[in-house]
């Protein structure tokens, strides 16, 4: 694919975002996160990619530049969306004042600072759907303003990963920016739930789950079933494929308050529900009376089986559930590659 463009992944987590970029031919120079468990997972799966385990607020850009041999082409990542809890008329528009008001805000403000200092050609940020409505939309407005002030044309789109071949209905906000004068665009979906669109149908979750049925626990593959109580199994047996627990018709011995979203069973013919690591439990298997294993959730997230997650089951689940599906990341990376190649050719022409 020609020149390997250099990438830095901030808030890398388990690596779903940079995995796709690496597969698309990019050169991942550095990953950063502030998590000892993520570091263990990273070193096991990506031993050749440097990792800095540090609070981004304490990380100077000069430390990042040591890994670059010049400029970085893309900075990717997804700052956690906590903070900015009081943004609006009550809080000063000055970034330093806002940061002092709520230290968690500094994660995004520091991210913007690093963007200013590193000056990548492109930036990619991923976040949860809730960022759209947080504090009436002022949180997202602040994020976009910080990036624009850093010299970038930026835009965002709410993207359903199922529209890109991921066997999971998963909506996430993707922010893209560039400082090379190109219009901000997004890859078009290549799958659809509407037959009239003329695209392949959404991928069913069963295709990535069915070959694991009949196997016992395989800890080395992160495939370990939760040991549910008899009461929980009895509830599961009442849930039809693609359905949820019929709370209104439960016998007294099976009733409890606040069942939440973990009592939903997947449908073999449809993409999975969003993989979120709530209380150790992913959604219920389409056929078996148990929640999904970490490996099954990882497959739905499009991680390969040779990607092993460190920690106990709950910790593994959080890494999987918080990740960007590598399949979508690869398609996004390939989409941006054509634009980067265009800017690279223009730079060569200018030198000539």
Task: Please tell me about this protein's structure.
The longest helix is centred in the last third of the chain and has 26 residues, at 326-351. Strands 3-2-1-4-5-7-6 form a seven-stranded mixed beta sheet, with helices on both faces. It has helices at 16-23, 36-45, 61-65, 95-101, 106-118, 138-149, 206-209, 230-236, 294-300, 313-321, 326-351; strands spanning 6-10, 27-33, 51-53, 74-77, 122-128, 153-160, 171-178. Helix content is 31%, strand content 12%. The protein is globular, with a radius of gyration of 22 Å. With 352 residues, it is an alpha/beta fold. Helix 2 links the parallel strand 2 and strand 3 (51-53). Residues 83-101 have low confidence and may be disordered. It has a domain at 6-188 and 325-341: Vaccinia Virus protein VP39 (Rossmann fold, 3-Layer(aba) Sandwich).
Secondary structure layout plus pairing:
Elements: E1 6-10, H1 16-23, E2 27-33, H2 36-45, E3 51-53, H3 61-65, E4 74-77, H4 95-101, H5 106-118, E5 122-128, H6 138-149, E6 153-160, E7 171-178, H7 206-209, H8 230-236, H9 294-300, H10 313-321, H11 326-351
Parallel strand pairs: 1-2, 1-4, 2-3, 4-5
Antiparallel strand pairs: 5-7, 6-7
Helix pairs in contact: 1-11
Indicate the mean pLDDT: 88
Structural class: alpha/beta
Strand numbers in spatial order across the main sheet = 3-2-1-4-5-7-6
Largest sheet composition? 7 strands, mixed
Gross morphology: globular
Q: What is the CATH topology classification name of the domain at 6-188 and 325-341?
A: Rossmann fold
CA radius of gyration is: 22 Å
Helicity range: 25-40%
Number of strands: 7
């Amino acid at each position: 694919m020609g020149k390997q463009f250099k990438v830095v992944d901030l808030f890398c987590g388990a690596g779903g975002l940079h995995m796709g970029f690496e597969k698309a031919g990019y050169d991942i120079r550095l990953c950063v996160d502030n998590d000892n468990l993520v570091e263990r997972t990273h070193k096991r799966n990506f031993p050749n990619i440097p990792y800095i385990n540090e609070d981004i607020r304490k990380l100077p850009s000069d430390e990042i530049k040591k890994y670059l041999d010049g400029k970085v082409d893309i900075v990717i990542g997804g700052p956690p969306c906590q903070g900015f809890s009081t943004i609006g008329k009550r809080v000063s528009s000055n970034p330093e004042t806002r940061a002092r008001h709520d230290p968690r805000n500094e994660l995004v403000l520091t991210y913007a600072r690093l963007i200013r200092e590193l000056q990548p050609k492109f930036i990619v940020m991923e976040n949860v759907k809730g960022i759209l409505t947080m504090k009436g939309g002022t949180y997202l407005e602040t994020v976009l303003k910080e990036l624009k002030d850093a010299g970038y044309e930026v835009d965002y789109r709410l993207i359903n990963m199922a529209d890109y071949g991921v066997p999971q209905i998963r909506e996430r906000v993707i922010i893209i920016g560039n400082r090379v004068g190109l219009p901000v665009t997004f890859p078009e979906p290549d799958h659809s739930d509407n037959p009239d669109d003329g695209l392949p149908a959404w991928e069913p979750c069963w295709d990535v789950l069915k070959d694991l049925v009949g196997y016992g626990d395989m800890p080395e593959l992160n495939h370990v079933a939760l040991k549910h109580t008899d009461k929980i199994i009895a509830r599961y047996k009442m849930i039809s494929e693609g359905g949820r627990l019929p709370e209104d018709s439960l016998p007294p011995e099976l009733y409890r308050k606040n069942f939440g979203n973990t009592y939903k069973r997947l449908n073999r013919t449809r993409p999975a529900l969003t993989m979120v690591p709530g209380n150790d439990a992913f959604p219920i298997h389409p056929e078996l009376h148990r929640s999904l294993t970490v490996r099954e959730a990882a497959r739905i997230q499009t991680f390969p089986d040779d990607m092993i997650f460190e920690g106990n089951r709950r910790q593994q689940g959080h890494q999987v559930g918080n990740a960007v599906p590598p399949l979508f990341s690869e398609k996004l990376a390939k989409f941006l590659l054509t634009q980067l190649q265009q800017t690279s050719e223009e730079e060569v022409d200018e030198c000539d």
